[in-house]
Design goal:
Elements lengths: L1 H20 L2 H4 L2 H8 L4 H13 L3 H11 L5 H19 L3 H33 L4 H61 L5
């Protein structure tokens, strides 16, 4: 039961942490999203950069890399954004592997408790026969309690794991969409500011 208790505490801590860190408004700051879709001057770029520095996070860090390197070739900017994106994805998904492990191990620990409980039952039967019903019931009870506890911990944690994995993937797709929009805006601004386009 002690390992199951530790699993439940660890799983609950990660679930609470993900509930706080994977909130859409925390990752995709609405003001920054609005601003990057309306970039049409150098002043807008400077405003977006200052906003990224003021509200750091996965999305802001990716946008900042794109804005700081806007004078590079389009493919180079894309590569820098992709590199930064990989780092930020790792941060968004941090802890989900542990959550998956807890979801898988909790029922197994419960099953281990079942096996230990049944061993105790058979030990009592071999030593004292089947006449000691109260001793037999104790071992069977221990077996059932650990199995139930393992399932009670594992099932919600597995649901939380899939929920937060899906949420992280959704956020990553949204970040890609807005990053591409920002890239198009700064490239359009760069083309418009070239002397031959005037």
């Amino acid at each position: 039961m002690i390992p199951l208790l530790l699993c439940s505490i660890l799983g609950l801590a990660i679930v609470l942490e993900k509930a706080l860190t994977l909130r859409r408004r925390r990752i995709l700051h609405p003001e920054l999203v609005r601003l990057i879709h309306m970039i049409d001057s150098e002043q807008d770029i400077q405003l977006a950069k200052s906003l990224c520095k003021k509200q750091p996070g996965p999305f802001a860090n990716i946008i900042l890399v794109g804005l700081q390197n806007r004078d590079l070739d389009k493919e180079e900017i894309k590569e820098l954004i992709a590199d930064q994106g990989r780092q930020e994805v790792r941060n968004l998904e941090r802890g989900l592997g542990i959550l998956e492990t807890v979801a898988g191990i909790a029922p197994l620990l419960g099953l281990l408790g079942t096996v230990i409980g049944m061993i105790k039952v058979f030990t009592v039967i071999s030593a004292q026969g089947t006449g000691q019903a109260s001793l037999l019931a104790g071992g069977i009870s221990e077996a059932l309690i650990t199995t139930a506890t393992g399932l009670v911990i594992g099932i919600p944690i597995l649901v939380a794991y899939h929920y937060y994995t899906h949420r992280a993937e959704d956020l990553i797709l949204d970040i890609e969409k807005h990053s591409n929009a920002m890239l198009q805006r700064i490239r359009a601004l760069s083309v418009a500011s070239r002397p031959e386009s005037r």
